[in-house]
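dumping this here before i forget
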Amino acid sequence: MDSPDPDWADVRLHVVTGKGGTGKTTVAAALALALASGGRKVLLVEVEGRQGIAQIFDLPPLPYEERRIAVAPSGGDVYALAVDPEEAMLEYMEMFYGMRRAGRALTKMGVVDFATTVAPGFRDVLVTGKTTEAVRRRGRNGRRVYDAVVLDAPPTGRITRFLNVTKEVAGLAKVGPIKNHSELVNGVVKSPETAVHFVTLLEEMPVQETLDGLAELRSAKLPPGGIFINMVAESLLPRAALDRAVKGRFDADELTLGLKAAGVTDAAQATALAQALAAEVAEHAHRTELERAERETLAGAGLTTYELPLLADGVDLAGLYELAESMRTQGAA
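structure:
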């Protein structure tokens, strides 16, 4: 059942970024499934050449073409595209200069690789351009081909530079197709139809990097979206017990009595086990307290937050659908 009032109903380009290790690709894939639910058609794009989408959907490496990879809950299709900068540049040369054959010759000579290496801003224009073209594309019936596009983008530390294509290519071209193309890309990226979502964990470093990335994004007048807090583990203890443990007031003697009642008859063994469990409780309570503080820090960012559960069995297809359902329940899609 669709959320009655999804938070991003007017957004068509969802850019997903996050510090390495936070599960950025997993969240992007789950978001694509959530957005496609109910009969919609969504394109999931990756631009870093890691074949992360193929791995997470348990597929062979994806070619440079759009293909259906999953059926969303309640119907709907997820398509995927692994953008190859070299192929994107050949398309670019064909589109603007009619030089695809010449482009292939330049590829053999290494000129294309040289150009995208010495001018990384140009490389970003190529891959973001391919993504924004999919956002704008219409079929013969005049309707949008995709209801939404999800971009598995570079990490948080590079996201603003990656998206701020007009500034990055300013030194490459003052006029002509490159400049016009970058302005077209910029028009989509900075529009209300785009939202840049951050993925983080309840840990100090990824939270701080999220806040730093958000500040850079706002400074560049790029549109922030939501914050997806990934791998959230539920506490196994009641709040009162955690509070006592944080204050050093957790009573190991109570554990000893409980262990004896459970059948641990050896007094020394019960005491040793109780002390070990009490130490684990204290560690768990301390971690929970730190996570609570990081939640409060993220709340100060002023963005909508979503908490995604830690998957006990790891990330597989079933886990992706579970995350997608969690997103929909919370109103993200």
